[in-house]
Every structure is written in structure tokens, then in C-alpha cells.
Amino acid sequence: MTRWLAWEQPDRDALYRLAFALKIGENHLRDLMDCLEEISLRDGLQVRQILGNGAVSDVESDPRLGRADKLKRIKEQVRRLRFPRLAQTEDSIRARIQELKLQPEICLTVPAGLEGGRLRIEFDVASQDELQRLITKLADATGKEAVREIFGLLAGGTPEDK
Predict the structure, then answer these.
(1) Is the separation of the CB atoms in 18 and 51 below 8 Å?
(2) Which residues contact 86 (CB under 8 A, 6 or more apart)?
(3) Which of 8, 43, 79, 153 is deepest in the core (most CB within 10 A)?
(4) Residue-range domain boundaries for the chain
């Protein structure tokens, strides 16, 4: 509470409005405040500017989303603002995965924050023939440049290293 009270009134109001509308609990609020303070310090922005950012305010005002989904997406947007290089790397990996044009039954994902630097591969099959077809498609993809780039990014490379 003392931290929040040390903020300028318009910043306190902006966070209060968000916290009240989304019924943000203490732990989520503390995490959000940590991120907002770090972004503010690094980028020289006021908290109200960060929360007024289109990416954040668009989620907050989206009538299709429930309270929990809004909170999750707002925290993700703030995380992306806090770690812009990580967000750019995640976006680059997603783009490379799309370039592979794998069957919809094959799902390639990476953990949040690229934890562990590993690629997860999932697929569902109903027959041995389908299994063989998907394994062949996946094996064909392993020779593509996009796969090499994905693993380069996971190993700590940057999107500019292409």
C-alpha cells in the first residue's frame, strides 16, 4: 500500500480503476506494480501512460472478454512491454512456426518466457497411417531453414541473427 501511495495521484487513479474493475488480488497487483515501476523507470513513462497504451487499454475495454481473461491478457501485454526483446523473440519463433505450414494436427509451441529453451511438439492421431503421415511431415520440416532459426532463437540468438 505504501508503494502505491508514493505514486503520483493520476498513476494511483489509473491503477485503482483497473484493479477495481478487474478485482485484482494482492499477488497479481504486486506483480503488476513491479512490472509497471520497472517499465516506468526504464522508459521514462508514467504508469498512467503505460496503462493507457493501446495494447493494454484495448484489452481492458474489450466487451467479449471476462474479468479473468482481461487480467491475463493485460498482464501479458505489460510483460511484453517489460521485456520487449523477449516478446520480439517469441513473435519471431511464432512466425517461423507458421512458415513451416505444418498440418493443423501438429502443434509446435514454446513455454512462456522461453523457459528451458525447448520446443514442444504435440499431435493427435487416430490411426497408424495418420501417425506415419504426420511423422513424415514433421521429419520433412526438420530440414527447413525455419527450424534452424527457431532453435537458434531458443538458444539465445536474436531475430536479427538470421
Answers:
(1) yes
(2) 80, 113, 114
(3) 153
(4) 2-82, 85-161
- What is this structure's pTM? 0.77
Question: Which pLDDT score, from 0 to 100, does residue 120 have?
Answer: 93
Closest by Cα among 90, 96, 95, 92 to 115: 90
Instruction: State the Cα–Cα distance between residues 85 and 73, nearest whole angstrom.
Output: 18
Give the residue among 113, 15, 24, 14 at the shortest CA–CA distance from 68: 24
Which of 39, 145, 103 lies closest to 48 in space, CA to CA?
A: 39
Residues 6+ apart with CB under 8 A from 60: 18, 21, 22, 70, 74
Residue 10 in contact with residue 46, Cβ under 8 Å? Answer: yes
Cell of 78: 505489460
Tell me the pLDDT tens digit for each residue of 93-132.
999 999 999 888 899 999 888 888 899 999 999 999 999 9
By CB neighbour count within 10 A (0-12 exposed, 13-18 middle, 19+ buried), where does 44 fall? exposed
Question: Mean pLDDT by 10-residue block, N- to C-terminus, for the chain (162 residues)?
Answer: 87 94 93 95 95 87 92 93 93 94 89 87 93 93 93 84 62
